[in-house]
Design goal:
Layout: H1 7-18, H2 24-31, H3 35-47, E1 67-74, H4 80-91, E2 96-101, E3 108-114, H5 117-130, E4 135-140
Antiparallel strand pairs: 1-3, 1-4, 2-3
InterPro entries: ArsR-like_HTH, AsnC-type_HTH_dom, Dimeric_a/b-barrel, Tscrpt_reg_AsnC-like, Tscrpt_reg_AsnC/Lrp_C, Tscrpt_reg_HTH_AsnC-type_CS, WH-like_DNA-bd_sf, WH_DNA-bd_sf
Pfam families: AsnC_trans_reg, HTH_AsnC-type
GO cellular component, one term: cytosol
Length: 153
């Protein structure tokens, strides 16, 4: 189901991306509307799949998760059974924050957040014990310059 979005819908979405804990009154005031129409639009966007879920953003370093690795994976396996095992291995690991299948020389890229290099190695050893990969390159992020916490609306 495709949901048609107008400028007011986009303003509401920008506010929700900025801080979803705001009250309906605060959002309505910011976007120049009233509470009931804002609620109806949010409900419609949830039902239409535009809004997937609401969650909170945690500060990784405050929780002792100080290392972010971008893991580049090349595989010689491309059959459906391997892909299913790989997907299951990723789903079972909360340290995998993002996973993307790529076009080009690298097959997959993962964003992995862990406490330190030793924790990354434990992740790596567990992953390669479950699925066969041809080549793995891990790149340590030295500093996060920008985080994609919201879509451009």
């Amino acid at each position: 189901m495709t949901v048609k979005l107008d400028q007011l819908d986009r303003k509401i979405l920008r506010e929700l991306q900025r801080d979803a804990s705001q009250s309906l009154d605060e959002i309505a005031r910011t976007v120049g509307s009233s509470k009931t129409p804002v609620w109806n639009r949010i409900r419609k966007m949830r039902e239409g799949g535009v809004i997937k879920r609401q969650t909170v953003l945690l500060e990784a370093e405050a929780l002792g998760l100080e290392a972010c690795f971008f893991v580049l994976i090349r595989t010689s396996e491309h059959d459906a059974a391997w892909q299913q095992r790989f997907l299951e291995a990723l789903r079972d690991r909360p340290e995998v924050q993002e996973a993307h299948r790529l076009a080009g020389e690298i097959d997959y890229i993962l964003k992995v957040v862990v406490a330190n290099a030793r924790a990354y190695d434990a992740f790596y050893q567990a992953l390669i014990s479950e699925v066969k990969v041809h080549n793995v390159t891990a790149l340590l992020s030295m500093e996060e310059l920008k985080s994609g916490e919201g879509l451009p609306l």
